[in-house]
Amino acid sequence: FGEAVEHALVDAGFAVSLLVLEVSPAGATLVDADTVFGALSVNGITCDDLVVAVGDTATCSVVCWCANQWCGRTECALLPTTFDAMLTVATTMKPLVASSENALPAIAFRPEPGLVVCDLDLVRAADPEDLKLGYAVLVGTMLSSSKSRWNQFTETIPEILAGEEVALVNAVQWSQTARKDVLATNPSARHALDFGKTGERTLRACLGDAASPVPAYQLLSEGMRFEARLAHDACDFDIDYVFEVDDCLEDFGIEELAFDLEPAAYIEEFRRQQFVRSNRSMLPLPAALGAIRLTSVEDEVLDRHARAYLASRKELL
């Protein structure tokens, strides 16, 4: 695919200089960014040139971030090669890790690529396991959209799984539009795209080395499942939609994760993960379809749901 892109650029009259960048799927670092900046400098790239990124979410994110800084802003085109990247890179980037000592992914901005090209043949040719992170992202994004869009989405899941072109085109367009609309609204609503991520980070931290073989899509889906249940108590999120989220994830082949954690340790880490990124103890939770807002969760509610959730996961062992 990379060679096809290179040949197409040459045919269009561009002189192409290739940089092969090995970026961790967990996120690029400032060292990776420095490598990109070095290549831009060596090749004499100016704001009148074009930077093209071909790769996964982490690769597209760091290249777009660097292009935005270079010469005041150099135009950037993104060609994501994974399904989750196709859904997200037009509107959000995967944060960069500041350093090995500070592993917190905290450096990010709202990307503004000049062009995003999604080749859906890459989705149809991919291993089904490699698509599941995209499916989990899609469920969370559609939850932040309208009720009518959610209903359309749930009805087309079989077509998406079958790789039907119209269904995949709709899924990508719906995701990009929903994410753009969320980011254009009030500050509280902009956190909607972080739904499930506190739970995801909590599990990754609590499971430790045991989390490394657990796919990222499973940690994210567990975060969404748990936080949807918190939303039922904290902001009256309809329990039927809680179960619909579960059903969608299962339809996409994302099963519940079995593990055994002590409730006290889990709750302590969950609160810690909240305060790592904010000074307020608030979570982006759905009050209704299309309405994910920052919400306070009382200790009693978190404690009760955490214990029930952990007990259900222990039973799966």
Written account of the structure:
This protein is mainly α. Strand 1 (50-55), helix 3 and strand 2 (75-80) form a beta-alpha-beta unit. Helices cover 54% and strands 10% of the residues. It has 15 helices and seven strands. The strands form three sheets. Strands 1-2-5 form a three-stranded parallel beta sheet.
Write the layout of secondary structure elements.
Layout: H1 2-11, H2 30-42, E1 50-55, H3 57-69, E2 75-80, H4 83-88, E3 96-97, E4 105-107, E5 115-116, H5 120-125, H6 132-143, H7 147-155, H8 157-161, H9 165-183, H10 187-190, H11 197-207, H12 216-234, H13 239-251, H14 263-277, E6 282-288, E7 291-296, H15 299-315
Parallel strand pairs: 1-2, 2-5
Antiparallel strand pairs: 3-4, 6-7
Q: Please, what is the average pLDDT?
A: 93
Structural class: mainly alpha
Gross morphology is globular
Which sequence of SSEs, written as H and E, runs from N to C?
Answer: HHEHEHEEEHHHHHHHHHHEEH
| Distance between the first and last residues' Cα | 41 Å
- Strand order across the biggest sheet? 1-2-5
- Computed CA radius of gyration, to the nearest angstrom: 20 Å
Biggest beta sheet summary: 3 strands, parallel
Query: What is the number of E strands?
Result: 7
Strand content: 5-15%
Q: What portion of residues is helical? A: 40-55%
* Number of separate helices: 15
Any low-confidence stretches, pLDDT <50, length ≥5? none
What would a concise description of this structure say?
By secondary structure, this protein is mostly helical.
